[in-house]
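Hello forum,

I keep getting stuck at the same step: I have a sequence, I want structure tokens, and every attempt I make locally crashes halfway through. Rather than fight my setup again tonight, could one of you with a working pipeline run this one for me? It's a single chain of 168 residues.
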Amino acid sequence: MVSGCLIPQDDQVIPELPPLKNRPPRIVAARYGNERADEVELRTGTACSREEFNVLVDDLDLDDTLRSFWFIDKTETSLPLSPSPLGGSGQVTRTLSQPSGIRTQLGNLSAGPHRLTVYVVDSDIQEIQNAQIRPVEREVLLPDGKTGRNDGYVDEFTWFINAVSCAP
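Reply #2:
Ran it on my machine without issues. Output:
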């Protein structure tokens, strides 16, 4: 026979967990055709066939809509090319396809080194000023009834492109 004593337990209910904070998207890789790309040798000219340039992005917030902005040889006066927003897919890793106008711009590059800069944003955009992307700040309701600010996240990555002419 075993003896023991019972200790009374608290009747306090654990409060609900607060909602998860917004987590930033993260550019993890790029693909040029079927190859992973860190540096790209790009064949330019009208007679060249070109592969698609896609960006792989991880976002732990599966329902976030991602927006991307693409710059070639970005300066303070550059305007980005932007494909349609990519809605949540239920997948952590999503593929952002190149905007339609970028194929023409890449094909018209002069021979030599260039930069392709891509920004990925998980919120609406307030403005693009001096080629800088600024997300919209939104108020969110916190579990305690107070409000907080969610100013979104931006991730940026630049790839180096070596443009080489192809013979027709």
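Residues 102-107 form the longest helix (6 residues). If your local run keeps crashing, start a new thread with the error log.
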